[in-house]
Amino acid sequence: MEKILVLDFGGQYNQLIARRVRENHVYAEIKPFNKITPEQIRAAGYSGIIFTGGPNSVYDPTSPHYDPAVLALGIPILGICYGAQLMAYMAGGTVVSAESGSEYGKTVVCTDGSVLWQDVPERSVCWMSHTDHVETPPKGFRVIAHTDKCPCAAMCDEKRKLYAVQFHPEVTHTEFGKDMLKNFLYGVCGCKGEWKMDDFVERSIEKYREKLAGKKVLLALSGGVDSSVAAVLLHRAIGKNLTCVFVDHGLLRKGEGDFVEKTFREGFNMNLIRVNAEERFLSKLAGVTEPEQKRKIIGEEFIRVFEDEAKKLGKIHVLVQGTIYPDVIESGAGDASTIKSHHNVGGLPDRIAFDEIVEPLRDLFKDEVREVGTKLGIPRELVWRQPFPGPGLAVRIVGRITREKLDKLRQADAIFREELEKAKVQSSQYFAVMTDLRSVGVMGDARTYGETIVLRAVTTDDFMTAEWTQLPYEVLGRASSRITNEVKGISRVVYDVTSKPPATVEWE
Ligand code: XMP
Question: The pTM is what?
Fold first, then answer.
C-alpha cells in the first residue's frame, strides 16, 4: 500500500500533518527523525516524505539535523517551516534569522507557477509562524511563492522532486492548504488514494478471521469509543470466540452500564460478561481524597477484576487492546511530563497467561476510529460520545467518595446533560462535579446546609487546551433550578468559567 513518511523534527502540528494526508486517502506514518535512516526509508518504499516544522534554528548546533543522503533517494520531499529551512540548509542554500523578517499568524502569500498550486489562487491566506527564513535557495531550486516580508515563502527543484513551504499548509487557517497537500500527494508523489476506511474494515476482518481462527480471545470493554470499535471489529471476524469483559466499577454516569450491556449483548449479540464490582471499588476508595491516589487505586483494581474474570475462563490465547495511533506515537516520542496519570483500561494485566496481544486500531487516528465504528453500525451516540475518564465519577467528586455522593452527582449530571442537549448547545464536553463544599441555603421557610454542584462545559478540538463554553444564561438557569429542586441535598449550583490552561478540564 502506498504510504507517506512524516519525518518528525519536533513541530507542534505533526499529528495534524499525518491526519491531513490520510484525509486525502493516503496512509501516513510519523517517525522521529533520529529513529530512521535514509537506507531504511528507501527500503520501506515510501511514496513521499514530509519534513515537519520544529522550534529550532538550523544553525543552532543542537537543532535536529538529518543525513543529506535523503535528498538523493529520488523520493519526493515536502519541507514545512523548519523542514523547509532544513532542506535549504542541507542542499547548500542559506537561511537567515531576522526578527524584522519574522511573521506570525494569517499572512497573504503570492504563489507562482508550480504543480503545488494547482487550484490555488495567485493570492491567498496562509498561516505563518517563523523567525528564520530561506535567504538563498540552493542550486537547482527556484522560488515559487513570496509574502511581503518573506522573499522565499516556497521553493522547489522539480527535477529532484524537492518542495518546501515556509508556511503551514496543514492548519485550517491556510485557506488552500488542503489543496496544496493534495497536489503534493497526487501531483508530485503520484499517489492514487488507496487508504479507505471501507477497505480497512474488510481487510481487518479478513486478516483476523485467518490469524485468530480457533483461538480464545479476550477484550476489556470500557464502553468508550476505542474499545467498542475494537470489539465490534473483532466480533465480525471471530464471533463467539471473542469474550468481552465489561467492568462496571460503579463510577459510571446514570444509565451508562445498562446502555453498554444492552448495546453489546442485545444489539451485537456478543459474549459479554458484565462484572458488577461497585462494592469492590468503593471499599478500596473509602476515605481516599488525593486525586492521583484515586486514579492509581482504580487502575489497579480494574486489572485485578479483569484478571479474576480471565482466570475463570481458562486458557486465553489472545488479549485485545484498543490502542490507537496517537498512543503509539506518544509512547515512542519520549515522556511528556505527567500532569495527570491518564488511566485507560489498556494497562496490561501481568497475571493472565496469554500468548499474544492484538491491537486492531493501532494505525488509526480517533476520527478514523469513529469512521470505522460508523461503518460497523455502532450507534451514533456511542461512536460520537464525549471523552469520559477511565476513573469515571471518582475524579468528579472532590474529596471522599461515597455511594450517596455518587447518586447525587449522577442525577445532577444527567439533568445538566439533558438541558444542554434539549437546547442543542454546541460544546465539546460537559458534565457536573460534586464539591466537598457546603453552604447555607433556604428552602420554604427552613434553613438548609447543603452541598455544592459545579457545572463544567468546555469547547476544544484536542482537549490539550480548552475554552469554557459560553452557555446561554437560560440553559444554566434551567439546569440550576432543576438540580436544586430534584436532587435532594444540593442547595447551590455554580458554573466553572476557567479555561485550560490554567485549569484542567476535570476537577481532579
Ligand atoms: P484534563 O482534565 O487532563 O482532561 O484537562 C483532558 C481530557 O482527558 C480526559 N481525562 C481522562 N481520560 N483517563 C481518561 O481516559 C483519565 O484519567 C482522564 N483524566 C482526564 C478528560 O475527560 C478530558 O476529556
Answer: 0.85
